[in-house]
Structures are given as structure tokens and as C-alpha cells.
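We treat protein structure as text, and this decision shapes the records that our systems exchange. We quote a single record here, exactly as it is kept in our systems:
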Amino acid sequence: MATSRTDPLTLEVVELIGTVVARYYEEYEQAAAQHSLTGAQARVLGLLSLEPVPMRKIAQKLKCEPSNVTGIVDRLESRGLVERRPDPADRRVKLAATTPEGRDTARRLRDSLDFAREPLGQLTEVERALLRDLLKRMLGEDMA
């Protein structure tokens, strides 16, 4: 059953999502500043803490220009949080990767983000799984 974009329930859900996103970004920017990082630097550091990533993939993931990513990685590298290394699969490609200090900073940053964690902690595991699945579905990532 299709819903109208002007359906009151749809409008309420859109407003609530907007409020959650705005509060998350506000806290994220504050947490990043406590580590002398911009929000964009913190997002790149968090992404790289999972695994080394080619620069172009960082730009795709963050939906920004590759030149912006180069500047962000340059600043993180100058602080000793990130390093560039050749991709073992294709030595022409440069991977950005966290240093041990970068991984530690990313972990401390993640640990300081209470806004998202605390409200989610009030939901049961079943409710969190349902919310995750609904969000994935909204993003077109639903598991078939």
C-alpha cells in the first residue's frame, strides 16, 4: 500500500528522523571538537579505523569530492592519526589507514557518543533489530 508524502503519519516520521539526525550530528561535532577534529575528519578517521580504504572509496562513502578527502587525510596524516600505503592488490592505488594513535582516537571518539547509544539502550534487542531492518529497507539495503 503506497503512502502519500502528505500523509500525517509520514510527515511525523520524517520530522522525527530529521530531529534524530540533527541531534546526532550536533553531538558528533561536539565529540569531534573534544579531540581537536572537525566532523569530517572524525568521520574519515572512524571509517578508516575499520579497515584501510582507497581514497576514492572514502569520497564515495562520504559523498564528497576526492579533493576534499585528500585535504582531510593530509591533516589527519600530519597529526600522526593516518598514513598512506600502497594497496597490496594494486600498487598504483593508495590506501589510507589509521595508525595505532588514530585507532585509539577513533575508539575514544566512538565511546564518547552517548546520544545514539543511550536511547537505543532503552529498546529491546528485538526492537533494535526491527529498527535496523526498517532503516536498511528504507535505504534499499533490505535483506531478501
